[in-house]
Amino acid sequence: MKNHNFLFIILLGFTLTNCGDTKKGENSIFTIDNSTFKAQYQPQESLQLGILNPNNKTIDSIVYFSNDKKIASKKDLEKATFELKDQKLGYQNIKAVVYFDGLNSEATTRIEVVSNVQPKLYKYTIVNTFSHDTTQFTQGLEFYKDTLYESTGQNGTSHFRKYDHKTGKVFKQVDLDKAYFGEGITILNNKIYQLTWTEKTGFIYNANTLKLEKTFHYDKEIEGWGLTNDGKYLYQSDGTEKIWRMNPENQKMIDHINVYSGSSKIKAVNELEWINGKIYANVWQKDAIAIVDPSTGAVDGILDMSALRKLVNVTPEDFLNGIAYNPKTKTIFITGKNWDKMFEISVSE
Predict the structure, then answer these.
(1) pLDDT given at position 19
(2) How far is the C-alpha of 249 from the C-alpha of 24, rounded, in Å?
(3) For 19-113, CATH number?
(4) What is residue 10's predicted lDDT score, i.e. its pLDDT?
(5) What span, in angstroms and rounded, lies between the C-alpha atoms of 304 and 122?
(6) What is the β-pairing status of strands 264-266 and 269-275?
(7) 151 and 176 in contact (C-beta within 8 Å)?
(8) Which pLDDT value is given to residue 5?
C-alpha cells in the first residue's frame, strides 16, 4: 500500500508524541549534552552520549544508564554510543553518573524510541454469525477445550460464564461481589484468571469446577483491563499503551511493552488475545483491532472491524470488545459490549 495514513484513521486512539519532549536533568555541576538529540528515534538508530562540564571538573569516569540499566562506562569526557536496537519502544530515561574528585553527581535526559514497522491492513471473512446476549457487557472472551468463556463488567452484575456459543446455553456462571467491576479473563494450566477494573484485585478459579482458589492483588499501581496468555506467562493491559507480562505462579509483574504504531503510541489497549505468536488487542472505543508483536510492542497489523457495526443493533456506546481464538477451527470470534451478535471470522493479510 502506497499510503498508510488511513491506518492511523482506523485507530484514532493514537496519541501523537510532542516534538521537543527531550528534557534536560537539572544539575548544577554536569548536564548530558542533548543539543543534537531528536525527540524521537527508531530502533535502527543510535546516539552519542556525552557530558557538558561547565566548571571544568577533573572527571575520572562516567557510567551511563537507560531506564536504570547500565549501557556504557567511559573514562574522562569520552563519548559513548548508545545503540537502540535492543531497547524497548517508549521513553528511555538516560542517566549519567559522573565520578570526579572522589565524589559523584548525576545528570539525566530523555528520548523516545518509536516503531519502524509499517502496519499492514488485514482483511477478514465472516464464517458464521451467532446470537449474543445483549446483557453481556463483554470484557473478556476465550475458548478453552472448545468451550467459550466470557467475562462481563459493571458493578453489581459482573460475572463470567461458560456456555455453548452456538445455542447460548449457559453451563455455569460465577457472579462477582457487587463491589467488583469485572474485566478480562484467560485460562492457563487449568486455572481461570480474572481481573477487576479499579479494585486492583484478581481471582483464580479451578477451570473444571469454577471454584475460587485464590484472590490476589496487583503488585503495580495499575488498573485491570484485558488479559491473555502465551502458554507460559500472562499478559495484562491497564488502559494505557502498556501490556504487562505477569508470572502466573505468584502474579508478579516481570516487565512490560509499550504499544506503538509508527511514531504514535496506542493508548487504551483493552481486551487481549494471543494468536499465533501475536497479541490481538482491542482499542477502547475504536472499531479496530491492533496486531501487536509481543517482543517489541510494535503494531504490525490492523483489522478494521467497522463494517461489523452495521450488522448489529447497537448504540454508539456499545463498543467493540471481545476476541477469542478457537484453535480447533483456527477462526476468531468477535463481539462487543451488549452486542446482539457474535461473529466467527477468518483473517488474512
Answers:
(1) 39
(2) 41
(3) 2.60.40.10
(4) 55
(5) 8
(6) unpaired
(7) no
(8) 52
| Euclidean distance between CA atoms 339 and 349, whole angstroms | 26
The angle formed by the CA atoms of residues 325, 327 and 328, to the nearest 5 degrees, is: 125
Domain 120-348 CATH class label = mainly beta
- Residue among 35, 27, 86, 73 at smallest CA distance from 53: 27
Question: According to CATH, where is 2.60.40.10 located in the chain?
Answer: 19-113
pLDDT along the chain (349 residues), means of 10: 50 43 53 92 95 92 93 90 92 94 92 94 95 93 94 92 93 94 95 96 95 95 96 96 96 96 93 96 93 95 92 90 94 95 92
Please name which of 222, 232, 337, 302 lies closest in space to residue 274, comparing C-alpha atoms.
232
What per-residue confidence (pLDDT) applies to 175? 95
d(CA 259, CA 270) in angstroms, rounded, equals 12
**Residue 69 identity:** K
Q: How far is residue 233's CA from residue 339's CA, in Å, rounded to a whole number? A: 30
Q: Give me the pLDDT at residue 317, please.
A: 87
Residues of the chain with CATH 2.130.10.10: 120-348
C-alpha–C-alpha distance, residues 83 and 66, integer Å: 11
Rg, Å, the chain Cα set: 23
What the block records as the C-alpha cell of 81 is 554510543
pLDDT tens-digit profile of 277-308? 999 999 999 999 999 999 999 999 999 999 99
Residue 113 grid coordinates? 524510541
| Residue of 118, 64, 123 lying closest to 96 (CA atoms) | 64
Handedness of CA 150, 153, 157, 159 (dihedral sign): positive
* Cell numbers given for 231: 502458554
End-to-end CA distance of the chain: 12
Quick: pLDDT tens for 231-256. 999 999 999 999 999 999 999 999 99
DSSP category for residue 112? E
